Amino acid sequence: MDYQFRFNALERYRDELLEGVLLTLQLSVFTMAIGLVIGLVAATMKLSKNKPLRSVAIAYIEVFRNTPLLVQLFILFFGLPTLGLRMSANEAAVIGLSMNVGAYIAEIMRSGLQSVRHSQIEAAMSLGMKPYQILRYVTLFQAFKAAYPALTSQFVLLVLMTSVVSAIGGTELFHAAAFVESRTFRSFEVYLVVTLAYFVLALFFRASFAALYRIIFARRTSR
After folding, report:
1. Which of 10, 14, 199, 200 has most Cβ atoms within 10 angstroms of its Cβ?
2. How many CB atoms lie within 10 A of CB 196?
3. Angle at CA 166, nearest 5°, toward 165 and 168?
4. CA 195 to CA 185: how far, in whole Å?
5. Using DSSP, how many helices (H) and how many strands (E) does the chain show?
């Protein structure tokens, strides 16, 4: 093999790559927060006794879970402008990723909510608590604890999924890598570094979520 590795060729582009990492972090955290809200709302709607609300939630979850993320992004960025609705690549990325991950979180939270013992809900109802009070004070904490491992895995997967938004021009790590590769023509070195960066980000989030679990759930339940 005559190929000679030249990682030093990337040295002058370290700022672009670092900025790509920071943008990926921002995009991931932002869409995590929005997706969690969307997922929780969709989960409660799906468990609702109101048939129209339940139907809307089921339709949303099925559509976004059974169509490719890339197609969803293309519809938002390339399709909606034909209807007069234009948005930037980053706006489309946030909306698309949030709606996509929200559909998966909805099913995770639904299972978490259903894991709460019905006797506790009946006890809360007997005390005259309203549905939103039962959700807030009785079921939500237990549901989050039950769903936490699956939620963290979904969020780490979201970090890796952000690379897809480069297909519509979204600015994140993979977009920065494509820019550096076009300037240096060192494809192997660039994408090896980017692979390592995604790996480190995934480990960082897993460690952060593990620490968060100990703070929120383990210590509280041990009291």
Report:
1. 10
2. 10
3. 75
4. 17
5. 10, 0
pLDDT digits (tens, 9 = 90+) for 177-189: 888 888 888 888 8
The first and second tokens of residue 123, run together, are 């006890």
CA 84 to each of CA 42, 80, 141, 169: distance values in angstroms, whole numbers, following the listed order:
28, 7, 42, 20
CA angle 188, 207, 64 (to 5 degrees): 70
Distance of alpha carbon 141 from alpha carbon 220, whole angstroms: 11
**Model confidence, pTM:** 0.87
Tokens for 211, please give them.
Answer: 């620490």
Q: What is the pLDDT of residue 141?
A: 85
User: How does pLDDT run across 61-73, given as a tens digit for each residue?
Assistant: 999 999 999 999 9
As a whole number of angstroms, the distance between CA 25 and CA 19 comes to 10
CA–CA dist 23, 144 (Å, integer): 28
Q: Cα separation of 14 and 12, whole Å?
A: 6
* The token pair that represents 57 in the structure block: 């939630």
Average pLDDT over residues 51-55: 94
